[in-house]
Write a structure and sequence with these properties.
Blueprint lengths: L1 H4 L8 H14 L8 H6 L3 H9 L15 H5 L10 E5 L2 H20 L2 H4 L3 H22 L6 E5 L3 H7 L19 E2 H17 L3 H12 L10 H22 L6 H12 L4 H8 L1 H4 L4 H10 L2
């Protein structure tokens, strides 16, 4: 409990720190030319170097290796709908934009004092759970759109009859590291979330409060400071509601719309986010290893 007692943010509100942190992250992009190291971070070079120096790993739930529960869920059904897969039309452009958003997402976490004062075990649990939804939320805030092209995956019977190799060893032209795409259904879920956010026209402050609600997720196993994290999420929701009450008095459904948008994030798999936005440049490198190195400098 000493950790919780020591976590007292300025202005008597963790949300002040969240809002300030998000403003720093989004507001300092025009000054990167004064900081060469920070500018280098915002490029995809770090991820490209990681792909050539790190071994593949399949021990983590967010590893980019193909063998996983998520991929088993995507196995072809009799109707063939799950065999529809998509790949980025411009992977280098989109992956570079996603990498920049990932850097800002991790910087946002670092700049929230009460997050950094949590036990490191809790930080790791929250990072592993929150990096993907926070990234997609960041894509929405930065208006990062992307196009995909569809490729139909052959059924198991077709593979047997035609002698095609297994899916994980099958390269796609123009997409390195044996990329095979992700389910079109999963891609549509990400696009639906982005369109939802853009249709509501979420403000910078609202994005900050939404990020706080996503970051402090009490519904995870293994949290030592569970009750404190619960209180932080409640405070994020309350601050968002109060902001809407003051700024959008006439829109009585806005708070509900934003909560619906948050609920859409739960259906987006971290594995899918990693495969779609990072696998074309880092291959089967464990995304969690990259995250830990970027966050803690390990």
């Amino acid at each position: 409990m000493a950790t919780l007692e020591s976590c007292r943010c300025r202005n008597n509100s963790i949300l002040y720190s969240i809002l300030k942190s998000d403003t720093l992250v989004t507001g300092d992009e025009d000054h990167h030319h004064h900081h060469p190291q920070l500018q280098q971070q915002l490029t995809v070079q770090h991820l490209l170097q990681k792909s050539s120096s790190s071994p593949s790993s399949t021990s983590s739930s967010t590893c980019l290796a193909p063998a996983s529960v998520q991929e088993l869920r995507q196995q072809p059904c009799s109707c063939g709908s799950t065999r529809r897969r998509g790949i980025l039309r411009s992977p280098q452009v989109t992956c570079k934009a996603a990498s920049a958003v990932l850097v800002k997402t991790l910087r946002f976490m670092k700049n929230v004092p009460c997050f950094r004062e949590l036990p490191e075990d809790d930080q790791l649990v929250l990072i592993r759970s929150g990096w993907a939804p926070l990234l997609v939320l960041g894509l929405a805030q930065d208006r990062v759109d992307f196009e995909t092209t569809e490729t139909v995956e052959p059924s198991m019977l077709q593979r047997i009859l035609t002698g095609l190799p297994e899916r994980h060893s099958e390269p796609v032209a123009g997409h390195g590291h044996g990329a095979v795409g992700v389910s079109v259904v999963e891609i549509e879920a990400i696009k639906a979330f982005l369109k939802k956010c853009w249709s509501v026209d979420i403000s910078t402050k609202e994005y900050a409060y939404l990020k706080g609600a996503v970051l402090f997720n009490p519904d995870l196993e293994g949290l030592r400071c569970l009750h404190y994290i619960q209180s932080l999420r409640r405070e994020a929701h309350q601050a968002l509601k109060e902001h809407i009450r003051l700024i959008h008095r006439e829109d009585t459904t806005r708070f509900a719309k934003l909560l619906i948008a948050l609920s859409m994030l739960r259906s987006i798999s971290p594995l899918v986010v990693a495969q779609l936005f990072f696998r074309p440049v880092i291959g089967t490198v464990n995304i969690e290893e990259v995250l830990m190195e970027m966050f803690y400098g390990k």
